[in-house]
Structure formats: C-alpha cells, structure tokens
Amino acid sequence: MRGPSYPGHMASAVRAMRENARLVDVVIEVVDARAPSASRNPGLFRLVKKPTVIAMAKADLADRGTTDSWRTEFESRGTLVFPVNCRTGEGVSDLLRGCRQVAEASPRGPGRLVAGGGRKRPLRAMVVGLPNVGKSSLVNKIASSAAARTGARPGVTRGKQWVRTGEGVEVLDLPGVVMPGRSDPRSVVVLALLGIVEESSYDPVEVAARALRILRARSPSVLKAIGVGVATEPTEEAYDGIRELGKRLGFVSKGGEVDIVRASSWLIRQVRDGKIGRLSLESPPGEERDA
Ligand SMILES: Nc1nc2c(ncn2[C@@H]2O[C@H](COP(=O)(O)OP(=O)(O)OP(=O)(O)O)[C@@H](O)[C@H]2O)c(=O)[nH]1
Ligand SMILES: [Mg+2]
Q: Which of 281, 247, 215 has its CA nearest to residue 34?
C-alpha cells in the first residue's frame, strides 16, 4: 500500500508554513481528534519555533473518554490541548484563551503583543496541520464568518489567507501539509479513514478490511449497528465481513456477486464522515486496544 504522496505543492506548503511562522505569536496545530497521533507530524511542525497549542478538531466525532486521555497525554508533555467542534464553534473560545496564555507566557510574549503607545495589538495566530483535518473550518469559527474556503476533501486550501476577527485575533489559514513517510499500513489506513489522503491513493478493500478489525477492537457496537458480525479477527474473515456488509446493503450484481469495492467505499465513507457515531481510531500509548 502506498503512503501519502508528496507533490511539489506540498514542499511549497512547508515553506509557506516556515515563512509565515515568523509573522505570528502562536501556532495552532490542528489534528483530527479521532486519531490525534496519526494525524499530526511533530517532526514537521517542530520546524516552526513558536509557542504552539493543539486543537483537537472533529471532537464531536471522537469518543469523549479517549479524547480526555489524549488531552492528558499531550498536556503531560507540556502542550495545551483544546478539543473543538469546528462546525459549531464549541471549544473555540477556550482555544483562543489558550493561545493568548501561551503567547503571553513566552519570553518575548507580553511586549510583542503591545504595539507603539502601549496599545495592545491583535494576537496573531496561524493554523497548521495535515489536509482535511478542519483548519479552514476552525479559522472560520474564530472569525465567526465563512471567510475561508472549506470542503470534505483534502487540499481545498491552496494559498494562504489571513482572516481578521472582531475579538482582537488575526488568524492565518494555510493549506494542509502532507509529510513524507508514515507509510506503515496502520497509519495509511487511519489517514484514509480520516479523509487525509485521497481515495485514489489506496486500495479501498484493504482499508475497509483493516477498518473492520479496528472497529471490532474499539467499538463492537458500531459493527453491530452496521450489521456486520463481530468475528472479524483474521484478515480473511474481515473480507467476509465486507462481503456480508455488501450483501446487506444490496450491492449485489445480477449474477449474485457482491460488489466488495462498493461496500468498502461505503464503510470508509461512514467512518470518515462520522456517520456511525463517535469513534476514536487510536488511544494514547499504554491504552492501545487496536487490531
Ligand atoms: N463533524 C465535524 N466536521 C468537521 C469539523 N471540522 C471540519 N469538519 C469537516 O471536515 C471537512 C474538512 O474541513 P476543512 O476546514 O476544509 O479542512 P482543512 O484542514 O482546511 O483542509 P485543507 O484545506 O484541505 O487542508 C469539511 O467537510 C468540514 O465540514 C468538526 O469539528 N466536526
Ligand atoms: Mg483548508
């Protein structure tokens, strides 16, 4: 299975991230709350030497307890974390308070936020993260207006855009950055299920088979809800599970052949779009219960 590709526009996205970091007080690293580790690239974002907070976007789609565990995990390593719903704006005001807190606590912080004459200038923030994690949606909520373009596929934002808000914050939206590497099958499956990598870059049947195994380990009730038996441990049986699902959905040809590609894509979409209820795809180290 191929990992995420690393086209030329991604190299320039990395460059844009580094250049624009000089202009901001704080970096908001946006991850998908359903898999905050697989959907982040600490190596890449370490290039940005600015105070950073993590926004766990799509928290409405993740398991609440697991989100709390991740928050504890990241905060024990010294980074403030804010679960947010970028569609409703839930958690966004806490996030902005956190941004101000880390910006002002940084050595050059307080002075830098005061413009000439002692007047406070706006706090400048920048969102960074992988494609499709919710960066533009978050920027829109920060701005309380639909100023940044969003979309249910990776790569919607191409160039940078500054968004100004009435709350004394200026926030810069940047295109999603894919990092090279992360080509181990498990990460690729998780990135596929989160919609971070394009559908054309993976085999849907392979991803769906692994998805069934993850579902079995993490949420048997979800499996039951979509009508698949829970005995999907060995890979062969996972394929049986997809066939069972295809049959139940009526994805069957005249000859009685089940369309397992169609059933696989259906399953991936259900997970990706959060249609099967709250589901976290990974837990912090030590709490792992994945297939
Ligand atoms: N349920 C839910 N959906 C979200 C949330 N945030 C974003 N989305 C959806 O996820 C999709 C991607 O959102 P964008 O804001 O365009 O993501 P992005 O990170 O800017 O993506 P790129 O610009 O492609 O890198 C859209 O369909 C959003 O509606 C959230 O907190 N909850
Ligand atoms: Mg965007």
A: 281
Q: Please state the atom number of ligand 1 nearest to the C-alpha of residue 274.
A: 1
Q: Is the CB of 271 under 6 A from ligand 1?
A: no
CA dist 52 and 81 (Å) reads 10
| Residues in Cβ contact with 241 at an 8 Å cutoff, skipping those fewer than 6 apart | 209, 212, 228, 229, 232
Per-residue pLDDT of the chain (291 residues; tens, 9 = 90+): 444 455 566 677 778 888 888 889 999 999 999 999 999 876 766 777 889 999 999 999 999 999 999 999 999 999 999 999 999 999 998 999 999 999 988 876 555 555 555 567 788 999 999 999 999 999 988 887 545 566 777 766 666 667 776 667 888 888 887 765 566 778 889 999 999 988 888 999 999 988 988 888 888 787 777 777 655 455 566 788 899 899 999 999 889 899 999 999 999 999 999 888 899 999 998 776 655
Q: Whose CA is nearest to atom 30 of ligand 1?
A: 58
Centre of ligand 1 from the C-alpha of residue 217, in Å: 26
Of 111, 107, 142, the C-alpha closest to 28 is 142
Is 0.85 topped by the overall pTM? yes
User: In the chain, what are the domains?
Assistant: 8-173 (3.40.50.300), 203-272 (no CATH)
156 lines ligand 1 (CB under 6 A): yes
Distance from C-alpha of 257 to C-alpha of 264, rounded to nearest angstrom: 15
**Cα gap 7→180, rounded to integer Å:** 10
- Any ligand 1 atom below 6 A from CB of 205: no
For residue 57 and ligand 1, the question of a CB distance below 6 A is answered with yes
